[in-house]
Each structure stands twice: as C-alpha cells, then as structure tokens.
Design brief:
- The chain is α+β, with helices and mostly antiparallel strands.
- Helix content is 58%, strand content 15%.
- It contains 4 helices and 6 strands.
- The strands form 2 sheets. A 4-stranded antiparallel beta sheet has the order 3-4-6-5, with helices on one face. The chain has a two-stranded antiparallel sheet with strand order 1-2.
- Strand 5 and strand 6 form a beta hairpin.
- The longest helix has 38 residues.
- The chain is elongated and about 70 Å long.
- It starts with a helix and ends with a helix.
C-alpha cells in the first residue's frame, strides 16, 4: 500500500511540475526567456531549441535579446520566432534579434488570468484522477485479499490527504501567477 501511495504522490508531483512549466510559457507582459523554450530552429537539419544555438538575455524588463553564436542562422531564428505562437514580431538588426513585449491592456490581463485559472483547474482534475486510480488499485488489493477493510480505509484517507495537499499547492501557484499578471 505504501508503494502505491508513493507512486500516486509522484504522479501528483509531476502534474504540479507540468503546471509550473505551463505558467512559465505564459507571456505576462514581462520578458521571460522561458517563452522561447518551445521555439525550435532548423540547425543543420536538426530542430534545436533557440537557447542551444544563441545567447538569450533580458537586458530590460520588457526586452529579450537573442545573439546567435553562428551568425549564419540569424535568419532561421528570426523565421522560427515569427512562425511560433508567442505573438511577438522579432526585430533583426543583422547581429542581434530583439523581442520587445508591449505593455498589456487590462482586458488582455483578464484574459490571461482566465487562462491561468483554466490551466490550474485542468491540473486539479488530473490530480483527482490520480487519486481515483490509487483508490481503485487499493480496492483491487482488498478484493484480492492483500488488504483488510481498515487498511483500505486508511489508504483512502491517505490518498485523499495527498490530493488535498497537491490541490492546495496548485491553487497557491495559480494565485501567485494571477497576482503577478495583474500587478504588471
């Protein structure tokens, strides 16, 4: 039973990790190099992340600069950013690409907060699904005679406690991201 609950906790933890990764890629008006994590550049026939072919820095609060180590791929980086879904037009001066983030309007902030809330709700559903799977496995163990009725009740309580802990964590992370977006 302990091993089963440990696996459930690991799965819930992975859901929280995924939530934080999702939030990193949300453009909140402030320059964050993590939004480039999903942008791949065709580098000698291999799709390669931008941060592996260039130096990515944040010189100002709303600007990201990308300076490729190989100047010949500047155009490819530019094109990869334009075709990505980050919604920023790159400015290319021949040596460096600049991404300038415009300030967000109040309406856009509210839209982003709704998206943040929706992602958190999806994560909480996934966490509850992990709990459901764990409880089903516990019931199978009881049916097979591996657990007593008391052990089953204890396991269900522990699974619920884990679920409560991770849902509270998802809510906390979501609230922090929403606060960050509204304060910008």
């Amino acid at each position: 039973m302990k091993e089963l609950l440990k696996k459930a906790e690991e799965r819930m933890g992975r859901r929280i990790d995924h939530l934080t990764d999702e939030y990193k890629s949300i453009r909140a008006g402030r320059a964050n190099p993590a939004i480039l994590d999903k942008v791949k550049v065709d580098y000698y026939g291999t799709p390669t992340p931008v941060n592996q072919v260039a130096s990515v820095s944040v010189p100002e609060a709303r600007t990201i600069t990308i300076q490729p180590w190989d100047a010949s791929i500047l155009g490819k980086i530019n094109k990869a950013i334009q075709t990505s879904d980050i919604g920023i037009n790159p400015q290319n001066d021949g040596k460096v690409i600049r991404l300038i983030f415009p300030p967000l309007t109040e309406d856009r902030r509210k839209e982003i907060v709704k998206d943040v809330h929706k992602i958190a709700e999806g994560t909480k559903v996934q966490i509850r699904n992990v709990r459901r799977d764990a409880i089903e496995d516990l019931k199978k163990m009881k049916k097979n005679g591996d657990l007593t009725e008391d052990d089953l009740k204890e396991g269900e309580k522990k699974a619920q406690d884990l679920t409560d802990k991770y849902i509270k964590l998802a809510d906390k992370i979501s609230a922090e991201k929403q606060k960050e977006i509204m304060e910008i």
